[in-house]
Structures are given as structure tokens and as C-alpha cells.
Amino acid sequence: MTKAERATVVINTLKELYPTIPVPLDHKDPYTLLIAVLLSAQCTDVRVNQITPILFAKADNPYDMVKLSVEEIKEIIRPCGLSPMKSKGIHGLSEILIQKYNGEVPQSFEALESFPAVGHKTASVVMSQAFGVPAFPVDTHIHRLMYRWNLTNGKNVVQTEKDAKAIFPKNLWNELHLQIIWYGREYSPARGWDLEKDSITKTIGRKAVLEEYYKKTSR
Asked: What predicted TM-score, i.e. pTM, was given to this entire model?
């Protein structure tokens, strides 16, 4: 099976499984999405969705956020991990939004990536989910599945993103990256993986990955 044929299997299966695609992080506008995505670094979406209502009850816009001290933000977001860095980032980017962008989140990769605590993946999520700009943010699920599906060599997320963009049609990027995340969580997790439930990997999986799986499960 060629790479293009494998990509078609992925697209068709995911379209069938996820005709409507929920966004994993709760938010109401670009600013609250930006904060939620920043908080999700090395933290589960479930935990972030538990914490953001508490934070947003106090400050759901940059003007209210800068009224809180970094320490106050840190206390609220502590359960999300990396709270010293994330709290400084949230406060700092809120100040920049007020000073340079009239409190509005800019629709630009370059501008977003210049903010403290905002990397390429966070910027990509905001651009795709808040503004509908084609992007392919690669998280751990996408990185894992692109490798399992033999669509990338899996050396790093930069290469995985590049390969995903080359393989999949641009008009599908925003849907696909979310569909792959949901699929990874439900059918192809890192731990407790049951290949019998994972129809995509079973059909198009990398030979070495399948052999390793069967070796482990036959013990």
C-alpha cells in the first residue's frame, strides 16, 4: 500500500468515526482558547477543563487577567503543572495583548509565537480552531499515530508536522488533527493499546510496530 493509499484509509475511517468533531478544550473566544492551550502543555485536557472555569471566573480577558498577580494566577493553575512558567506567560502575554493589540488575539503565527510561553504548537491550535486558518498542530497522540501508520519516521514533532502537511490535503488539516487526537485517545493509546480495536493501525500499520505488538501480546 502506498503512502497516499494509507492516507486515504486514515481520512475515510476518521470521517466515518467523527463526522462532527468536538474541540477538546473548553473556551468561548480566541483569548480563552489561547490560555487553555497554553495550560495544556504537559497536562491533560480534562484537567485543564477543570481549572479554566475557576481562572476565567476571575479573568476571562486580558484586562482582568493583568489585575491578578502572577502569584494569584499560579495558585489557581497549579494543578496543571509548570505553574511558575505558565503563570508568567499568561500575565505577560495579557500585557502584550493590551499594549500592542487592543486586547485582541492577533491572527498571526509570528505574533502568537512571540508571546511568552507560546510555542508553535499552541499558535497552530489557536490559528486553526479560533480563526480557521489551516494548521496541523502535532501533539503526542498525532506524533505516535503518524509513526504507527508509517506516515512519518517519527524522529521529532517538527518532522511529523511537515510530513502530515505533505500527505494530507490542506483543506482537511483542521479537521484531521482533531480527529486523529480523538482516535488516538479512544482506539490507539500509548498504554493499554488493543490492536483489535484499532482498525487503522491494523490495516496500514508499520510492519515493525505490528511485529513488536504481537511479540509483546503473545508472551
From this structure: 0.92
